[in-house]
Amino acid sequence: MDTPLDVLAQAEAELAAMDFDETASGLDRRQFMFRSLVAAAASAFGAPAMAGAQGLRAPLIDMSGVWSELQPPAQQPAVPLGNGEAPALQFMPYPEGTGALMEKLVSQHGAKAFTRATFPVEKWNGAVPTDPEALAFLPAHRISALIKARRITSRQITDIYLERLKRLNPQLNCVVTLMETSARAEADAMDAELKAGKDRGPLHGVPYGIKDLFATKGVPTSWGSPDFKDQVFDYDAEIVTRLRNGGAVLLAKLSTGLYAQNDWWYGGRTNNPWNLNIGASGSSAGPGSATAAGCVAFAIGTETQGSIVSPSIRNGISALRPTYGRVSRHGGMVLSWSQDRVGPMCRTAEDCAMVFNVLHGVDPKDSSTVTTPFNFDRNIKLASLRIGVDAAAPKELVDQLKALGMAPREISARPTVGGMQGGGLNVEYAAAFDFFVQRKAKEFGLDLNKLPERTGNAPFGNTPPARPAGIAADATNPMAGADWNPRFVGGRVTPGWEFVQNQRRRLLLVQAWGNFMKDLDGFIAAPQADVAPNAQTGHPCAVLPYKFDVPTFGGGGPGGAANATTPAPTYKAQPICAVITGNLYNDDIILSVAHQFQKATDFHSRRPTIG
After folding, report:
1. Which intervals of the chain form a coiled coil (predicted)?
2. What CA–CA distance (Å, rounded) separates 19 from 28?
3. 569-593 CB burial, b ≥16 within 10 A, e <16
4. With pLDDT > 70 as the criterion, what percentage of the chain qualifies?
5. pLDDT per residue over 553-567, tens digit each?
6. What is the pTM of this model?
7. Dihedral class, residue 417 (left if φ above 0, else alpha if ψ from -120 to 50, else beta)
């Protein structure tokens, strides 16, 4: 076996054969390389022994001149980071990787795989409703048909929604910023374009609302927090741009729970329009509440782990949580680069498909995005699909789909991987909000390297979490769980190697789910059973109402739970929702299945009585 000196001798011989610049000043490259090897060997094998080797003493005696000539430049100060700058590491939900996905798509579809499909809007037939409320509760695709047929104008439906937002918001608390002036101007512009023969597509003139996490140029974007209620960006988020280019009219910034958690924001709790005595759930609380209340034609929500699914179920509406990477997050508040998703929250599955057809596709400003085919099929044959059914799936939904032709396949428990520990989500939280934590630490006089032990949900700082309107001083603060100190500080102490190990286990989970889903187009299980694992794997799901009944939401009190002094509230009947989970990139299939159910039922068309 070669000794360390043999290795160095071989290295010197190889370096001697290297050419170098004879005219260069200072130490030549060959000499520098050899001395660097010797210095490294000295640290590895022991300097005294190496220095005693014949022929090596001179180079090792005095290296100061070498290093003084070759000192690296002074270390630059760290570039400051805000909330949005993405890391170099990128999550990819397809088990074999992006390259394999692209090859598969090209082999199956050719260049058409990357071409956005057209979305035809079926023509309006019959009389136009004269009641403003009836118009307000029409599905977005029916409003689109009326505008295209010149049976109503964008300005008319925009004014109806603006009036409802102003009138109902005191009870719903779903509006953060009403964009009344700009909405009317956009609606008038869309009407003028249509009159001149310019049609931007199915969203032309259709009014919507957006979760207050997205940048809208010149308009506050609060993230649900009093610390950011005056934050204004000088650009639009990518989805705002796409929707505007598609002709949609932005009515309002709708509430998000504080930093995208629950239904409490600095203005108080956003409420469920069917049952005002409970919150709208979150964190896409405003989009869920406003859509269910007929205050917008559709809305845009976000999800990291349940924030589209949960408020859609709570408010009895239809929604799509897309496959990870199909919609740009650019310009949106970041919680997790590897889990955040953007999706439509609507009255019907067809509405979701119409909106998603505009939103999806590659955005160079969001490196997670891919373009894959999306082809909504209004007449899909359920018998041709491989739909799994779990024993806990809602019977009413399964029975109706079977009557429509579905041949269900029994499925077993979904795969799990031990030791995931949330997949490192807290670390991403901590990184995304480091800028804010540093700021708050200075305000509170905290040394982030010497954080005290925290009991329960108690704050690290000397100031309690911001208390929203309507909560007594001696009551539990429902915003505490989402405040900066417990949510964004915990991940700061996770070792780097542990985060990497979590990500390695996450890939094992992605691969296990890939194997589980390989013979399925989608499956139906208990409504929220797979939200957490699919937050890790990136699978899509569609939410849809499947019956009308009294809900079994938990509890009362500020946080929604019953206690000794606040009994559980009673609720009125409302739409009850189910979830259809799809294989990766099967967003079109699961929406098409949901559409078949909605063609045969009317649960999605029920209206709440507010007031």
Report:
1. none
2. 10
3. eebeebbbbbbbbbbbbbbbbbbbb
4. 81
5. 864 433 344 444 557
6. 0.86
7. beta
| The pair of three-digit structure tokens given for residue 293, joined into one six-digit string | 């209340």
- Exposed, middle or buried: residue 476 (CB in 10 Å: 0-12, 13-18, 19+)? middle
Q: How far apart are CA 154 and CA 246, in angstroms?
A: 14
Which of these is catalytic: 154, 307, 336, 368? 307
**Spatial separation of the C-alpha atoms in residues 601 and 604, rounded to whole Å:** 8
Q: 307 catalytic, yes or no?
A: yes
Q: How far is CA 198 from CA 74, 194, 247, 496, in A?
A: 59, 5, 10, 54
218-248 CB burial, b ≥16 within 10 A, e <16: ebebbbbbebbbeeeeeebbbbbbbbbebbb
Question: Between β-strands 387-389 and 409-410, what pairing exists: parallel, antiparallel or unpaired?
Answer: parallel
Dist. CA 451–CA 489, nearest whole Å: 9
Strand partners, 540: none
Q: Which residues contact 313 (CB under 8 A, 6 or more apart)?
A: 281, 527, 528, 543, 577, 579
- Name every residue whose Cβ is closer than 8 Å to that of residue 266 and which is 6 or more positions away in sequence: 222, 224, 225, 226, 229, 258, 466, 468, 469
Residue 211, phi then psi, degrees to nearest 5: -60, 140
| Cβ atoms of 501 and 420 closer than 8 Å | no
pLDDT digits (tens, 9 = 90+) for 136-184: 999 999 999 999 999 999 999 999 999 999 999 999 999 999 999 999 9
- The top-level CATH class assigned to 132-383 is alpha beta
Domain ranges of the chain: 83-111+413-447+482-519, 132-383
Is residue 605 annotated as a catalytic residue, yes or no? Answer: no
- Tokens linked to 219: 């308009």
pLDDT at residue 421 in the model = 75
Radius of gyration of the chain (CA): 29
Note the helical H segments in 361-424: 395-403
Annotation marks residue 283 as catalytic: yes
Kindly report, residue by residue over 592-604, the tens digit of the pLDDT: 999 999 999 999 9
Band (pLDDT 50/70/90 cuts) for residue 542 is very high
Strand partners, 128: none
- Name the catalytic one among 144, 225, 283, 592: 283
How does pLDDT run across 509-532, given as a tens digit for each residue? 999 999 999 999 999 999 989 999
Q: How far apart are CA 578 and CA 318, in angstroms?
A: 9
Q: Which of 144, 211, 253, 336 is catalytic?
A: 211
